[in-house]
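Researcher: We're reviewing a set of sequences before deciding which ones to prioritize for further study. For each one, I'd like a predicted 3D structure that I can look through quickly. This is Osmotically-inducible protein OsmY. If possible, include the structure in token form so it fits the rest of the review sheet.
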Amino acid sequence: MNRNTFTPSVFFSTPLRRGAANGLLFALLALGGCTPLGLAVGAGAATGVAAYEERGVDGAARDLRITGGILDLWLRADYHLPAEVGLEVYDGRAMLTGQVHDEKIRTEAVALAWKVDGVRDVINDIIVTDKGSLLDTARDSWITAQLKTELTFDKSVMAINYAIETVGGTVYMIGIAQNQGELDRVLAHARSIAYVRAVVNHVRIKRPS
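Model: Here's the predicted structure for Osmotically-inducible protein OsmY, in token form for your review sheet.
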């Protein structure tokens, strides 16, 4: 098994435009992801991949529960929150990204994230702005996909230990690097991609064993 292989996130890791969440949920159901067989296969694949991560199977499962808890609170408070705010949870640290039009939305998203058991830190990278377009969203998705591909094929990087979001041309990263050299390679990859304006690093370096 290639330890650098990325697997699709179970939850919304990238903020979606208003109305897009319904379409995505319908598509997932249509693909059979919520059938007993689909869930079993998905859980098995996730467990196998998590075994190669620095956080391990237990850590990945804990982060998955935290992600579900945050999304549940967001949905209960405002149906559109998961469509506007991106969420990545790694080792109990919740990284919130996205662009919202109201400071109240950002404040609410952060406050609700802190309420979930197991959350050790909430990183607020949400931007309040009226700017943004479908072209920007498409470009951000392209940047994220391009960076993930480069990291996956870089044999000197354990890509599975990184979670990535791109908003407005800014790349946000969280995870665990094996050492400073690996982190430097990851940052260099991110900065070399077209349309990237800035890179915000929340990655921690692995503690010596």
